[in-house]
Structures are given as structure tokens and as C-alpha cells.
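Entry 14: structure prediction run for ATPase. Input pasted below.
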Amino acid sequence: MYVQILIIILTCTYINYILVVSFRKNEEAIPIKTEERIVETKLDIIDGRTSLGIEFGSTRVKAVLIGSDRTPIAGGSYDWENRLEDGIWTYSLEDIWKGLRVSYRKMATEVFEVYGETLTTIGSIGFSAMMHGYLVFNREEKLLVPFRTWRNAMTAEAETRLTEALDYNIPQRWSIAHLYQAILNKEPHVKEIDFFTTLAGYIHWQLTGQKVLGVGDASGMFPIDSQTQKYDQRMTAIFNDLAQAEGVPVDVNQLLPEVLVAGQAAGTLTKEGAYLLDPTGTLQAGIPLCPPEGDAGTGMVATNSVGKRTGNVSAGTSAFAMIVLERDLSEVHPEIDLVTTPSGDLVAMVHTNNCSSEINAWIKLFKEFSESLGLEISAEKLYNTLFQEALKGEPDCGGLLSYGYYSGENITGMDQGRPLFVRKPDSAFTLANFMRLHLSSAFGAMRIGMEILKKENIQIDKLVGHGGIFKTPEVGQRILASAMEAPVTVMETAGEGGAWGIALLASYLLEHEKLSLEDFLEQKVFSEAKGETVVPTKEDIAGFEQFIKRYETGLSIERTAINALN
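Run finished. Output C-alpha cells:
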């Protein structure tokens, strides 16, 4: 009889799982598992053999819960947008906490609906978010100015002065550039600053009480010494002198969060933190947390690109190529950021502020057009159809030109953005060329940055693409391969993204004594991973070369648009 009852329970659970997955709205489906796997997952949940990753991206907060086999078992998300307020790109603290709670609640609800278990504990947790930016607090833990995100191109003077003084590239979006610019601007709040951090560091601090940061995220705040895996003390001394000269006596070491590498303990979830995450009071305190990381680091983890001579390209609202270096670059390049992997290895980062926003805007316009004709076409079908059309376009995009600059672009020297599309009367203005153009333009600024690494003779054995632009098979991948002049692999797990990456780092927290992060990913996560590799053709490479010459020549048009539409 007990056997019959068990069979009934398993059957009901399995049917419920299929129904929930089938009818989920606005969430990525979790792969259907066997009855045996469902039982194993239930045990993982009950025994706390799970890891949770929550990442705050530019347009979405996403939570992913993984089991002991490191595959996703439940997820939840919250859509949000940054706002331009008083000339500052920002997110409110209210939105931050709402995004955290909603994404967690959706994930926990799915756990209950699919597996019949209430989530009371988790094996480990990790938080990740957009890198850089400026979150500053006084001794009373009060936010002194609204959160200034990476998207703000308002620190040009600081960028120039710091890069020269430190002999190290300090891009405008870096946290230290924001701090120094505030000092140069004589902003009143500067003398009250007791602590400043990134978005991931802020959330982690509030949930654990620990002012720490993963080395990858920290490397986007202030330069890291690759030998000590801490802030470069030669440079901190120089910065302190610069601040003193402006009448602000400060020890930047006291303001920055402590640096931790992957696998190090970063505190535990406090009772207050558990309530912030789960206001129902169901989740228990005491759960260990891994160091909070930036989206660049979680992208490296999610694509198994933390080893030397490996690289990945993350493409979404912004885009960046991350190449793990074997050696330092021979000179300072303003177009190249030097950051680190979550383990502290040096990485060359080609970061572009703009990527897919203009593509999304055109897709939205096409959707409005189809609806005006009385046609109900899903966004997914529109994307797939129009992306596939791009493969029919001419390799050089038929002489068309566009810049999807919604904000400034450091690599091309733009302090603001003006999305524009331009063509000559005799350009081949077809839908195929139009779509290929916007996909090519999304990687235009990145290609310019990669040319510098090419001249530095940086070797890349493996390049992996991930992000929304690769959801349609082959298309974005082929355009990127043409731009990078190298084979590009997209793995089946690419759609899991950074939330999965930080969940893996949380899982690694429990196994770091056994394996290096590189070996952990290779042996425990990606040993049976499958992917598709696209090798660019000679025609595609030659066509993109023509396009990028047109792109560079036409930058004066973008500058004129910025000045004219001010």
C-alpha cells in the first residue's frame, strides 16, 4: 500500500511539474525532468543542497535556484528600467528591493508549485549586478546621492586625470572615477562619505552586514594588484594625494569594500537580511553567502571562460568581450579595461555601453506595424523572423550605416548618445540589409576595441557568446564571428545567463577546498556541455571589414547629431 501511495504522489508531482512549466508566463522554462530526478530535486530542496543566484541586470532582476547537479530547478524575475532623473541614469532603492523580493518570491512559489516544498533554507546564496557605478553612504548608512549607474558618462575630467596619474586606464563608469569627479566638482556629500560600493556589494551588505566584494566586481571600482589580489596600494596612495590636493583628506582603503576571491566565505544571511529577501519570514537566517560579483564575472563563469586564453562576449543592453590574459598589456589603452576573473586573474575587457537597445526599438516598431494591420505576431516570432532575414543580407550591409547609441560610448569618444540610421540614395535599402546592419552595428564599437588586443598579440583559444542577442540560432553568432574574425561558440546553457553564473559561484563556495574554480567548472558543471560553433567565412570577414571602415568614418555624423540635438 505504501508503494502505491508513493507512486501516486510521484505521479501527481510529475503532472503538476509539467502543467506549471507549460503554463508559466514570462519566465524561461526549466527543462522537464524524469520522475527519479524530481525526487532527487525534492531531496535537494529539503536537505538544503541547493544554491541560489540573483543577478540585477540592466533590464531584469533574475533569480535562479540550482540543485546538487548545478542545473536550474526554479526561477523568477522582475523587469525594470533605469530612469534618467536630473541628467543621471539611476534606479531607486525602492525598485532594488522590490526587484529582489519579487524575483525571489516567484522562484520560491515555483519551488512549491512544482515540487510541493516550501523553501525554508538554501545551501548557499550569491548576488550579482551591473558593475561599476556609485553608491555612497554616510556613517548612519544613509544613501547620500541617488545611485549613479555605469551608464552615466559624466566623469570625463576624472577619467583623464586618474588615467594619467595612475598610469592605468580608469574608464568613466568606474566607481573611483565617480568619486574623484564628485571631489573635483566640490559636491557637498563627499566629506560625509563613510563607505561606497557597487550594487551587488550594497545588497550583500544589507543582507549580511559584511562590507565585502568579489575581486571581479572590485576590479571595476579600483585597480587590483594581480599579485596580492587586493587594491593596488601604490595607486591608493596616489589617489589619496590627489584627493588631499582638492581639500578632501581621505584614505580610499577605508571607503572601499574588502576584496574576496571566489570560494572565500563572505558572511551569512542575517535575520534582518532574511526578512529583506523573504518578508513572509519563511526563509531561515544563517545561510552562507559567496562574495558578491559583477555581471562580467558571472558571465565568465556561465560560459566556462575563466582560464587563460579563453574569452566570452556578453551581449545585451550593453556588451563586453572578456579575454583572460597570460601577461600584462604592453601599454595603457583607454579603450581597454583591465579587470579580473572571480579568482583574480587579469582580464582585458572591451566594454561598450550600447548593444541591443536599438534592435529592440526597431522590433517594437515592427510589432506596432503588424498590430495596426490586425496581425497578432509574438515578439519571439518577430525576433526570430527578422534575425533570420539578416542572414540574407549583404556582408557589408549594403552600404547602410547606423549607431545604436542610447548613451555615451567610451571607445568611440562619445559623451552622449543619439540613435541614428543613415544611408546614401544608392545604398541597398532592403529588410535583409537593414537587419544585418543593426546586428553588425551592435558589435561595431567592440570591434574597434578588439583591434587593439589584436595588435598586442593576445591569443584566444576559445570564444563563447552569451546573452539575448544569441537566442535566435546562428544569426547573432555569425555576425559576431565576422566582427571578431574568430570562431564563436554558443552553448546550450548560454540562455541561463549571469544569475546561473552567480548561483554556480555560490555552489563553489561549498567546494572550493577541493578544486580551483577553473577545475570546478570544467569537471562539475561543463563536462558534458554541448554547444554550436560558427566559423566566419572569408566573405563575411571581408564584408564586416568594409562595414567597420564605414562605421569609423561616419562617427563624425554621430558627433554632429549629438551637438545638433542637444
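Notes: The first helix runs from residue 2 to 23. Will compare against the previous run tomorrow.
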